[in-house]
Amino acid sequence: MNDTLLQWAGCCLALMLLAGGCANKEQGEQSVSVTDKVTSSSSTTTNYKGKVASFSKRAQAIFLTVGSGANAQTVRVKFDDATKGVDEIAEGHFVTIDYELRDGEAYATSVQQNKATLPEGVTNIDTDELLRLIRERASFVLVDPRPMDRYKQSHLPGAVSISIDLSEQQQTELLPQDKNTLLVFYDGGHGRGTAITSAAAAKNKGFANVRVYTTGRAAWMDASLPTYSTREYIQSGNVLVIDTRPKKTSAVGRIKGAYTLSVDTINATLRDLPRDAPIVLYGDEATKALELLTDEGFTAVTLLDGGYASWVEAGSKIEKGPISTAKIKWERKLETGEVSLDDFRKAVSGKEKDILLIDVRGRDEIGKQPLITNAINIPLDELPAQEATLPKDKMMYLYCSTGARAKMAYNELANAGFKAKFLRMNIKDLSAR
């Protein structure tokens, strides 16, 4: 266990829904699996089960990815003020949506995060008890069965990766030989059920003491507890690394590309830190820096697993010499379908002539924040009905107030075969950049 912790306690509307959903063309054209769409024999209630891909309260719409692999597709479900559970979900959650058809369109009656049942003989463990086991360095194995890339990015202290993506034989080889060893499984805590599935498999292999931290990484972070990133994540990711040690110490040797900032300096330069950046901290004040950034609303902050010592021991790249005083620079990598700010500006200025700019905000919002130069307004709700008027051979840049609805519009148009990209940005900030 890491000693640091011890220092602190849809294009898819009427036709889509009637046909069982249209396919996401980026992931294969398949119909909705019967396991993802269930119609009750005793009522007209229909269910979708899947992962929330996009969610907008302003547009009152949820885009849900159902199925997996080649069978994955995106469906759209509307909701209104009477829909139960909407305030409890977010992007990334695995949910069940009960919906009814209104004029051929799906409207959610309730949305609930999936909660799998623990297998017989497997018990739950809460945050306080797990924290106690870690602090006391109890004899147990904390297992992270999520995909390896998720583990590398952010895992609980002392956790080992036994990914559910591995073969059964590989998973068995990574488990302890002593079947009486206490095993604690956890996952992201968003209702996917990965931890419960892995715990059930361990129980079937004969392990006597199996528990599941059902609320997972999400609850751990909600409790302002640290998670850790691996060396491989820093080496392969677009990550902002901060060395919190004194400058004299850092000058002797530091992770190549790291910025040397004390907690006081971080506090004084919060405006200069990109909030979208995944930040990995190490050094004397790493825990304090994590607490500060978390309190200030940064959501992707982790500590380096093993600290600087493990980095050096592994022979990873370091640099020495005077500390740079240059301003922090970090650029977010664009998502699939996202347009860069530079390209968007070219379209606005007219330098890119063959681009159609579409504002997908509601008509009532235009008076408060006027249309961008050269843009037209097609509200998200009206987009499917307007598809026949849109050019198939012309690129469309979509924007809204923040980017959420623009991304939804992109999903709909891309699935329908249009060339489109979306801007992920608050339009009020456009003039400031």
Q: Overview of this structure, please?
A:
- By secondary structure, the protein is an alpha/beta fold.
- Strands 1, 2, 3, 4, 5 and 6 form a six-stranded antiparallel beta sheet that branches.
- The model is unreliable at 1-43 (pLDDT under 50).
- Helices cover 25% and strands 22% of the residues.
- The protein folds into four domains: 14-113, OB fold (Dihydrolipoamide Acetyltransferase, E2P), CATH 2.40.50.320; 122-222, Oxidized Rhodanese, domain 1 (3-Layer(aba) Sandwich); 228-319, Rhodanese-like domain (Oxidized Rhodanese, domain 1); 341-432, Rhodanese-like domain (Oxidized Rhodanese, domain 1, 3-Layer(aba) Sandwich).
- It contains 15 helices and 22 strands.
Please render the helix and strand layout as text.
Layout: H1 14-19, E1 37-39, E2 46-56, E3 61-66, E4 73-78, E5 94-102, E6 105-113, E7 122-124, H2 127-135, E8 141-144, H3 148-153, E9 160-161, H4 168-174, E10 183-186, H5 194-204, E11 210-213, H6 216-222, E12 228-229, H7 231-236, E13 240-243, H8 247-252, E14 254-255, E15 259-260, H9 263-268, E16 279-282, H10 286-295, E17 301-304, H11 307-313, E18 318-319, H12 341-349, E19 355-359, H13 363-366, E20 375-377, H14 383-386, E21 395-399, H15 404-415, E22 420-422
